[in-house]
Structure formats: C-alpha cells, structure tokens
Write a structure and sequence with these properties.
By secondary structure, this protein is mainly β. It folds into 2 domains: about 55 residues, Roll (SH3 type barrels), CATH 2.30.30; about 120 residues, no CATH class. The strands form 5 sheets. Strands 7, 8, 9, 14 and 15 form a 5-stranded mixed β-sheet that branches. A hairpin with a 3-residue loop joins strand 8 and strand 9. The longest helix is centred in the C-terminal third of the chain and has 13 residues. The radius of gyration is 22 Å and the shape is elongated.
Length: about 200
Amino acid sequence: MEDLQALVGQWVTCIRVSNYPEALTKGKKYQILSVKADSDLIRIKGDNSRHRWYSTFSFDLSGADAILLQEVHLDDPIHNPNSDCIEVTLKFSDGSLRWCLCATPTHFLHHIENGIQPKPKEQDGLEWTVFQFLGHNLKTKSGMDFMSFNIPHLVMFSHLSEDTIWSTMKHLDDQGELEASSLPYKNTSIQEDSE
C-alpha cells in the first residue's frame, strides 16, 4: 500500500460513487483532509457537507479528470418495451464510443421458444430486416437440446424506454461499471463538426 500521508491537502477525483450517491459525484474533485494509518481510507468533505472516511477505491488519487458518460443513443427503435432487444451507443466526455445490448428477459424467452425471428430496423429513412442471433443451440451428453447465452455486453431491463436506459447507463457509469458492461467501437470517436 502506498504512503497516503503525502496526499493530505491534495485534490482527488471521484471515479465511482459506490454506496454514497448523496455524498459523492463522479467527476467531482475533493480535497483529502486526512488519511487513516495502515488503511486505504481517506477523509473528505462530501457533497452533503459531512466529513467521513472513504476508500481510495472510489477516487483517482492523481486528481486527473474522470471520463464521464455524456450521451446515450438508441440505435434501434423499441418495438415492445416489455419484450425487445436493442443496440445502444454510448458517448463519453473524451469523445470515445462504446456500445451494448439492452434487453428484457421476455425477449430471450421468446427467442428460446420461437428461435431467431426477423426484426425490422430503420435509420435515416431506410428500412430493412435483420435477424438477431443471441445464443447457441447445444446438446447435452444425454442428448437433451438446450440454448445458452453468454453476452458480457448485455444489460437486462424489466421495461425498455429511453428513460430506463439512460437511468441505468448513468447508474453503471457512476458506479464505474459501464466499461465492463459495454464494448468499445474500434478506432472510433465522435469529432465535433467544425463547419
């Protein structure tokens, strides 16, 4: 464990709010008031004006700016809020892009019971149909057929809407979990339009 005493008086950046959403804000800088000997705890004054001990796990000790979620774009229309699976693009403050799937459990049940079904898509006035392949049909040693899913970039919802998706993505970002729940777009970032 590094010597944290040297950090007293320095400013650190919150990178996850953990169990303290009323006291910490991701991306906000906080001054270290003291450190607890032989631990990873630092004392700061939170947004609620209370002084308390927090784990260094929630902070970038260098004080660098945190990368924050800025936008959530639904790449597909939601046809049925209670049974659907859509792709979502996430834009961050450093210009990077990530994506994930947002789905309901009933969509997967329908997929298991009925197999791959066509899904209408539309973008920029163009319409087409795609087939979403989400799992594998497998067979056990005893000969039983079954389907399995392993989708690390999938976030499950009881109900899909723009609001539920934004709220969930913001919560995952605040907890430092959004990177693990999404995949990066390769060599892509949004460039500001200079025209």
